[in-house]
Write a structure and sequence with these properties.
The complex is a heterotrimer. By secondary structure, chain A is α/β, with parallel strands linked by helices. Chain A is built from 9 helices and 11 strands. Helix content of chain A is 33%, strand content 29%. Chain C contains 13 helices and 11 strands. In chain C, strands 3-2-1-4-5 form a 5-stranded parallel β-sheet, sandwiched between helices. Chain C has a 4-stranded parallel β-sheet with strand order 8-6-10-11. In chain C, strands 7-9 form a two-stranded antiparallel sheet. Chain C: It holds the Pfam family Peripla_BP_2.
Chain lengths: 253, 327, 289
């Protein structure tokens, strides 16, 4: 399997403290990986270091690429959802085509097609010409996801993409990620909602204090022992006709 | 948008022509224009070629430079309040120009004047970026701008006060308020090289500024090299503001007013705003310079006064609109 | 009959002579009493008038501006006097019995001196030839040197008349100073220019009161001579206008240019030197038409 994301011994230090501690990971096409862990586990730092946005030790295949090649290989949706100006939704999404545009910066037919596909996927057709910063937080999140989709890279990485969305939108978005993975791309998303992670991700990677403590199918990762040790949580987990059901029950702190 | 650029170009052309035809000399339109094009031996040719033409050209150069620099700074800092005058770059450039003139450096070699202005403007921009940080929050930006303007203005007064020339002290009005009166083609040649250099550099920033709409992280991940972008921005801004200020004094608010007005007309796209602001800046400065000659013609009204009368109310309005940030 | 009248006439004549003699004696005594013995001048123009009119030892101090060759016609002569900077404390310590000041000398300094009981004589700015005469006579009055003043005025008048007699044609000239200022009526520079036989284009162009003359108007007026001031050391934007290509072109095209100097500054008989200085230029221009 050719890895679309290959991390080897990746470490990030803040001062002397390791925020990411010797993490190795390989993600191939068809995988939708959920990166989970409590606050401060190092999820964001891991993703940013993998993309070359943060100084690190160890290796990342994406970070090893030159800047413009990186952008064609991996799309990144950061946690801070900035849209500085009142640009049209369509134009925001079209920003995802930046790495593919020629010198002149004009959108070609294939760029427009990619934008249209992204709009359709995220059901933003009626928002096309509205200024992006006049939308609600949840709507803006969908626009930014569409932007990452429009980039049409083999690898898509997102930091808390569904935070702040309503339940239906959350499910729809995770389904979109699942479909993209099924089409042969790789998706890595960091999530706090363990239930959605269990239902929609093919694989979970659990981080605790910078170390990858578990990596595998949701059922194998979300064991009661791990939940207690890493999340200080007791939860209900079972497989049903509608798929895995996961519900946190009690905090063990 | 598709109509905006041709409209602005037309505006520049029309105002340029008007600027050539307005002045105290009571000569008709056709006579003025023929004196400009053909050297008919009358003093009017001298007036047209050596007084009116340089003035109109400089208005275009200064306006384009300040408009474009304002749009670029706002795009980079993601803040509509960023503009060369407000954030102290113009004052820093004026300081350099005064130093070059008073130390005799300007007389030593031709481009010494705009280059010294560029140097001090560069210091001003770097200081501002160091103070304001990568995401220029309004409050920090304005405070940094006040500090830098105050420092540059004080040093400028000092240099002028130390001059043995009795007229030097009152020059501060020109440097802080700006004026295009009685310029010559020499000033045009002085300002042009660094201005063109700066314009070309700023023009390359379009894609990066667009991507910065999504924030620095996302822009970097889209393949934009932020350090190179910042460096280009700093040098280009210092270059155009330095050249413009060296010959016309510190003219403020152009970089604030023009992008603000044009932003809704270009769909808020920073890349489009760059070019629109260049033309818009030329339109604004040409119009203001014409106004200066029509209102109180015998009182030597400074260009900066008109710009401040237009720009300061807008500045207040913008502060009011963004006051939630301060809360 | 004649014998009876003659003694009465000779008696009244003797009375008149006696009265006249008494009046003269009183007048002389009055003059001798009024003439100040220790005079300090704190204004450039009063400095020069005082230096020209004062009796030996009467003038004690002149202002530092009198030493500036650029502004003072008598910079060498000024070196023989104590130099002051116009400060009240400094002047007071000199114990003068008269201080000479100009209308625009710092009000605070003048008032301070008056409060200290020192008489201050204030002289107006001179803006005409008649003003020069008046200033000389007023200075004579203040210094108790009326006779010397009257002689100076007479000399001034005859020399002025001689200079004006030789004018045949009045060439057009422009006065252009820093910041683009020109001089109109009621200015000394204008009076010097016209006394030298020129016509001031500021008047014909409609700038009778002087002030800022637009460069365009100057260019269109195409004067035959352009008269500018000497640049000060250091640079200033105000003086840069002298380097403007239009001025350069006018200097080249016009038959002549001249530069104003210290003689143009104050309304003293030295203005005659300024007028004399312009004479060669005017004669040259007269010859070309």
């Amino acid at each position: 399997m050719t890895a679309l994301l290959a991390l080897h011994d990746l470490s990030v230090h803040r001062g002397s403290r390791p925020v990411v501690d010797h993490v190795s990971l390989r993600v191939g096409p068809g995988e939708c990986v959920g990166l989970i862990g409590p606050n401060g586990a190092g999820k964001t730092s891991l993703l940013r270091a993998a993309l070359g946005l943060l100084a690190h030790q160890g290796q990342s295949n994406i970070a090893d690429l030159p800047a413009h090649a990186r952008a064609r290989q991996a799309a990144w949706m950061p946690q801070s959802r900035e849209i500085a100006w009142g640009i049209d939704v369509e134009a925001v999404i079209a920003l995802g085509r930046t790495p593919w545009l020629p010198r002149g910066g004009r959108l070609r037919p294939e760029d427009r097609a990619a934008v249209d596909r992204a709009i359709r996927r995220m059901k933003l057709e009626s928002f096309r010409h509205r200024p992006a910063n006049h939308l609600s937080g949840g709507e803006q999140a969908r626009v930014l996801i569409a932007r990452a989709l429009a980039q049409e890279t083999p690898l898509l990485m997102a930091d808390e993409p569904i935070a702040g969305l309503d339940p239906a939108a959350q499910i729809t978005t995770m389904e979109v990620f699942g479909r993209i993975a099924a089409e042969g791309k790789a998706v890595v998303v960091s999530l706090h909602d363990l239930g959605l992670a269990a239902r929609h991700c093919t694989r979970l990677v659990m981080l605790d204090r910078g170390r990858a403590v578990a990596d595998g199918a949701p059922g194998a990762v979300l064991t009661p022992e791990r939940l207690e040790e890493v999340f200080a949580l007791r939860a209900f987990y079972s497989r049903s006709a509608d798929g895995p059901i996961f519900q946190p029950l009690e905090s063990l702190r | 948008m598709s109509r905006l650029m041709p409209l602005l170009t037309l505006g520049v052309a029309a105002l340029f022509l008007a600027s050539l035809l307005i002045g105290p000399a009571p000569v008709g339109v056709l006579d003025s224009l023929s004196a400009l094009i053909l050297d008919d031996g009358t003093p009017m040719t001298l007036v047209m070629r050596e007084i009116r033409l340089p003035r109109a050209l400089l208005a275009v150069i200064v306006g384009a430079s300040l408009g474009m620099a304002g749009a670029a700074m706002q795009g980079y800092l993601r803040n509509p309040l960023a503009e060369p005058g407000l954030i102290g770059v113009s004052a820093s450039a004026a300081l350099g120009a005064v130093i070059a003139l008073q130390t005799g450096l300007a007389a030593a070699f031709t481009l010494a004047l705009p280059l010294t202005a560029l140097g001090t403007a560069l210091l001003g921009v770097l200081l501002l970026l160091a103070l304001a940080g990568p995401r220029g929050a309004s409050l920090t930006l304005i405070l940094a701008g006040i500090a830098i303007s105050a420092l540059a203005g004080a040093l400028l007064s000092l240099v002028l006060n130390l001059s043995p020339n009795p007229f030097a002290t009152s020059e501060i009005v020109f440097w802080m308020m700006g004026s295009l009166a009685d310029r010559s083609m020499t000033h045009v040649w002085l300002a042009l090289p660094l201005s063109v250099l700066g314009w070309l550099m700023l023009a390359t920033l379009g894609r990066g500024l667009d991507a910065l709409t999504l924030g620095e992280d996302a822009a970097q991940a889209l393949g934009i090299r932020l350090t190179r972008l910042r460096l280009t921005l700093v040098i280009a801004t210092a270059s155009v503001v330095g050249a413009a200020t060296a010959v016309a004094g510190a003219i403020g608010f152009v970089g604030l007013v023009v992008p603000h007005i044009l932003r809704p007309l270009v769909g808020a796209r920073p890349s489009r705003l760059l070019f629109a602001s260049a033309l818009g800046g030329a339109v604004l400065v040409l119009a203001a310079d014409i106004a200066v000659r029509l209102i109180l013609p015998d009182r030597d009204l400074k260009l900066g006064v008109v710009m401040a009368l237009i720009g300061a109310p807008l500045f207040l309005h913008l502060i009011y609109k963004t006051r939630k940030e301060f809360a | 009959m004649a014998n009876r009248i003659a003694p009465r006439i000779s008696g009244s004549v003797r009375l008149c002579k006696a009265l006249l003699l008494a009046a003269a004696l009183i007048g002389a005594a009055a003059e001798a009493q009024e003439a100040p013995r220790r005079v300090v001048s704190i204004n450039l123009c009063t400095d020069q008038l005082a230096m020209m009119l004062a009796a030996p030892g009467q003038l004690h101090s002149v202002s530092f501006v009198a030493l500036d060759r650029r502004a003072s016609s008598m910079a060498d002569a000024a070196q023989d006097y104590v130099i002051n900077h116009g400060r009240a404390e400094e002047i007071y310590l000199m114990q003068p019995d008269l201080v000479l000041a100009g209308r625009y000398t710092a009000r605070a300094s003048v008032e301070a001196l008056e409060n200290l009981g020192i008489p201050v004589a204030t002289f107006d700015i001179v803006t005409s030839m008649a003003g020069v005469r008046r200033a000389v006579l007023e200075m004579g009055e203040a210094l108790g040197r009326q006779a010397a003043a009257r002689d100076m005025v007479a000399d001034f008048d005859s020399r002025l008349a001689a200079l004006q007699a030789e004018v045949t044609r009045r060439p057009r000239a422009a006065l252009y100073h820093a910041n683009g200022f020109t001089s109109g009526r009621a200015s000394l520079a204008h009076e010097i220019l016209t006394a030298a036989g020129f016509e001031n284009i500021a008047i014909t162009a409609g700038y009778e009161t002087g002030g800022k003359l637009p460069l365009e108007i100057l260019a269109l007026a195409a004067p035959e001579a352009i008269i500018t001031g000497q640049p000060y050391p250091g640079t200033s934007r105000a003086e840069r206008i002298m380097d403007h290509p239009v001025i350069e072109a006018l200097r080249r095209g016009a038959q002549g240019a001249a530069v104003t100097d210290a003689d143009w500054v104050c309304g003293t008989p030295h203005v005659l030197r300024a007028i004399e200085g312009l004479a060669p230029l005017r004669r040259a221009l007269e010859a070309t038409r």
